[in-house]
Amino acid sequence: MEPLGLVGGTFDRFHSGHQKLLEVGLSECQKLEVWMTSDFLAKRKDKRIESWEDRRQLIMESLSQDLHNRISFHVLEDAFGPAPTHQVAEVIICTRETISNCEEINIMRTKNKLAPLRTIIVDPELDWKAGVISSTNIRRGTTDRDGGSWLNEEIGKSLLSLNPGVGERLKTPFGFLVEGDENEPKIAMADVLERISDEPGPIIAVGDVTVKTLQDLNKPADIALIDGMTKREKWQQASEIDVNLYDSVLKCHNPAGSITPELYHCCVQALSDFGYNEVEENSKSTLIIVDGEEDLAPLILHPLAPLGSVILYGQPGRGVVIRLTDIESKSRCRDLLGSMDIIPN
Q1: Which secondary structure element, helix H or strand E, spans residue 272, and what is its range?
Q2: Smallest Cα–Cα separation from 248: which of 202, 203, 289?
Q3: With CB atoms 3.0 to 4.6 Å apart as the test, which of 45, 93, 100, 295 could cross-link to 7 if both were Cys?
Q4: Is 125:23 a contact under the CB 8 Å cutoff?
Q5: Which domains are delineated in the chain?
């Protein structure tokens, strides 16, 4: 076992691939220096990347207590960190994707009259699609930290029906309520827009009043779902929602208390057209018109959406609810969906 090894990376949304990388490093070295990308560099890559301290804390929580005194954390301010001039380290741990960096580091070490570092290449962990588990895909919302799917294979093939157990659990508040007068919805919504101004999006609005209020404030949602109803009654002002504000309009059938394959596929299409916020000029907005009811759509939208998405919906008589898409919301929705009744087509 070598005295000291080095490993570098962003380590965002610490996942099973990261865990394997560190465990291999600790099996080969008595101590391991983890050089994590600084907040400045990380945010330039993707502003959804968590803070350096949050990333460090998640790693510590994921490792067994007996390993804590063998690992130390440092801020990485460039592509190579201290490796080209490190006087003590003898090993560097990497993946096949980063092997070229290690080769360049050893060239630099030779020029600095230092012995090259022994390179240990760690094979990747694979996700449910047999792709490499990555922080990028976790931020995109396509996998969890273990590479698992957020949605089971029956969703999109079968009708999901609400049952009393799930209905009771849905009564628990799920999001942050911005209170406001339902006769003047623009006041609360203006407050909402201020609160979410720094979120990467997309902004997803569920419900006719929510969609129209955003329209009235000249801030139409990136993805909007309407059913022509409010408080389960026909809403006359629904006809004032301007479909021309959206790049595409999709239609589907979805009875009350259910999630149909039609609704699922419309949500998939809308999020696919919006993209993952990496090339914003290519993002397309979508209006989904539901024949029936769209109330349960957030249960599908959270698992499908990238981290940092914002889902807004009205709470009659009280105001607007904000719920960010994060690991917690995805997990809760996956659990609720798994508890609904499945009715095969």
Answers
A1: helix 261-274
A2: 289
A3: 93
A4: no
A5: 2-140 (3.40.50.620), 159-343 (no CATH)
Q: Is the dihedral of CA 173, 179, 182, 185 positive or negative?
A: negative
Instruction: Specify the 3-state DSSP secondary structure of 109.
Output: helix
Which residues touch 218 (CB under 8 Å, ≥6 apart)?
Answer: none
CB 173 within 8 A of CB 341: no
Angle between helices 185-195 and 208-216 (to 10 degrees): 80
pLDDT category, 279, cuts 50, 70, 90? very low
Q: What one-character DSSP code corresponds to residue 127? A: -
The one-letter amino acid at 327: I
**What count of residues does the chain have?**
345
Identify which of 238, 181, 191, 182 has the alpha carbon closest to the alpha carbon of residue 215: 238
* Closest alpha carbon to 259 in 149, 183, 161: 161
Identify which of 133, 105, 130 has the alpha carbon closest to the alpha carbon of residue 119.
105
- pLDDT 10s digits, 97-111: 999 999 999 999 999
Q: 230 has which bridge partners? A: 233
Pairing of strands 223-226, 203-206: parallel
pLDDT band (50, 70, 90) for residue 277: very low
Nearest to 305, CA basis, from 285, 283, 325: 325
Q: What is the DSSP letter of 87?
A: S
The structure tokens 């957020």 sit at: 150
Q: What is the 3-state secondary structure (H, E, C) of 177-223?
A: EEECCCCCHHHHHHHHHHHCCCCCCCEEEECHHHHHHHHHCCCCCCE
Residue 108 to residue 58: CA distance in whole angstroms: 32
CA-nearest of 22, 9, 100 to 59 is 22
Contacts of 339 (CB under 8 A, 6+ apart): 163, 165, 166, 169
| Residue tagged 């022994």 (tokens) | 118
